[in-house]
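so i finally got all the pieces together for this one. its two components total, 379 residues if u count the protein bits. some of the lines might not be protein, just check the labels. i wanna see the whole assembly predicted at once instead of chain by chain like last time, that was a mess tbh
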Amino acid sequence: MDYEINKEIADSLMKLKGEVRGVAFKTDESFILNRKGEEGIKQVEQKIKELGQSLEFRKVESLDFYPIGLRVISLIVAANLFKFTKEDIVEMGSAAPKVSLIMKFFFQYFLSLSRTFSQVGSMWEKHYTSGHLSPEVLDEERKFISLKLEGADFHPVMCDYLLGYFTRVIEMIIKGKSESEESECTFKGGKVHRFTFRW
Amino acid sequence: MVKISEDKKKIQVLLDDLVVLESYNKDLLSFAPVPICYTSPQGVILEANPAFEQISGRDAYTLIGESIESIFDKEPITKLLEETINKTSIKGREISLFKKDGEKIETSVLAQTRKDKEGLISGCFIGVFDLTEIKKTEKELNNKIKELEKINKLSIGRELKMIELKKEIKQLMAQLAEKR
């Protein structure tokens, strides 16, 4: 995957409204370390510096807030540097709940789908200051879930990342694999981002 | 306005404390030589310490999100989880663990439920003791016992034979005396 990025685009991304908890950078750090080692981290940090921004993964505090734009830039940089495919980005998102400190706050709701489902809005708000994630459909009989994300039109790379993230959380509850897709996307003419899951 | 600023400060202090606590928690879990993991009530691994990574032959990345049944002998571990949820804790259940490469390890498993503030079971802590060395020693001891029993049997057999021979000699000497 090759996303267009240069100083101008990075500057405009930095103007995106909203902040994200440092935990998102921490989970990315963990994924890049796992795949590319310490050198991979250095490469991402260097490239971000060349774009006129600053990010040192080690210094990020999990619970502090950082500009959402920086989050998008770091994802794009990693994707371009390491030739990550869409599947890799989905996997990156999928790996995040495994090592996220904030997810640990939600372990107590993992006893049933309905309990977790009722918490998705809160899960989102614990990570992001803009956008709203709401549960739409939970049909345990038909094995179907639909989530709606509004006001979070950050960048298409985030859609793939979030798809992986939500899929993993659901799979951790259903104890199996699920087929997931972003069935509606604002970057593809949709009114909202809609993520659907079947298992 | 001043209040909001004070509240923000308080929240920041609490968040900083939380990060310190999390770091302490992580260090403690890393230090623990006993393999420990935490699962959802359905048995999905949500956390695992380095000792658990080592005994299972899988890294945390692979482990988290996996079913506990894919690590242990399926039937007994499912039963253990069910029983733990009913009884709160189970100690010393022998269950085989399978490393990623398929190697079988005999373990003793203990489990305890964790409850949320409403008293609902939110997960299970699972501790594992590697019985490999104990089983090895047990096997060696059993072999030694068997060997000793064999020697004992032989010794007793020899002793009985001696008694028999002595009886025979006595009888023969008596017969000889009669003939004289």
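Residues 1-31 of chain B form one domain.
The helical segments of chain B are 2-31, 50-56, 60-63, 74-87, 132-179.
anyway lmk what u think
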